[in-house]
Amino acid sequence: MAESRVWHPFTQHALEPSVPEIVLTEGAYLHEADGFRILDAISSWWVVTHGHRHPRIMKAIETTASSLDQIIFAGFTHEPAERLAEALIG
Known about the structure:
- This protein is of the alpha+beta class and 90 residues long.
- Helices cover 24% and strands 13% of the residues.
- It folds into 2 domains: 1-52, no CATH class; 54-90, no CATH class.
- It has a 3-stranded antiparallel β-sheet, with no helix packed on it.
- The longest helix has 11 residues, at 55-65.
- The chain is elongated and about 50 Å long.
- The mean pLDDT is 86.
């Protein structure tokens, strides 16, 4: 990737001026534009359990995002949150 203005945490930019550009995530892998696959062994807790772009999770996001995106809970609620709370607490 050309010189980037993005600050990447845990990166010595003077020593590593170019970081891999990821164009696709799938399961446990990150894919670069040239097709090179990288095992995402440092995956964040957002994806470590189910992998990147799990079909069931993607469908749930798509379904919910068609009517709701992000709602702050300071004085507001929504049905998916209420349903989840009921399922967790009973």
